[in-house]
Amino acid sequence: MTVSKPVLMIVLASVRPVRAGEPIARWFERCAHDDGTFEVDFVDLKALDLPPMQEPNHPRLQQYTLPHTKSWSARVDRADAVAFVMPEYNYGYTAPLKNAFDYLTMEWLYKPVGFISYGGVAAGTRAVQQFKQVVTALKMTPTAEAVALPFVQQLIADGRFVPSELVEAAALDMLGELRRLEVALRPLRDGVRGAGPQP
For labelling, which of 139, 147, 189, 199 has a CA lying 20 to 30 Å from the CA of 158? Predict the structure, then answer.
């Protein structure tokens, strides 16, 4: 009998034409694949290209009318854990990230979430602290372990992210905690998945 792996969704939150986040996200994707605990689903919000939310009904109802919303809902619902690769813009998180998050409600519930942030001296941590308020409102559980990358341009050479040993270790620590929380939260998550659309 083959036991399927839990699904880790990695979300690249920047949509700029040239992004420091892309090589970072691809590096973390490789870390997750090499770790072997999760099946990995890589989401690039630039490629996903969700328009500003246009659904007529509150997402809590799950009464979606648009194909892109139904597709996004199914993809997030399938995930058992989430990792956001995110920059900091003007002390906060990106508008495309908030838009993608706000499309849904029930699909995010009871999932562990990790953060790989990057930026200047603050390493994107102010954006993470703001976004933690959003994810915890939907009963997601952030890991204490995180990857924070200051002065990020110094860590990218020829379009490739070059992590230090400490950064590699931080990524593995976060993956380990995502694994533990995924197991602990699974009964709650399964209960939500079986509930169906709200009346």
Answer: 147
Residue with tokens 């920059």: 87
Query: Whole-angstrom Cα distance, residue 85 to residue 147?
Result: 9
**Is 179 part of any domain?**
yes
Q: 17 exposed, middle or buried (CB, 10 Å; 0-12, 13-18, 19+)?
A: exposed
Whether 101 maps to a domain, the answer reads yes
Mean pLDDT of 46-69: 96
Q: What is the span of the domain harbouring residue 183? A: 7-193
* CATH number of the domain within which 136 lies: 3.40.50.360
The tokens describing 107, both together, are 């699909």
More confident residue, 158 or 71: 71
Evaluate whether residue 171 is within a structural domain: yes
| pTM confidence score | 0.94
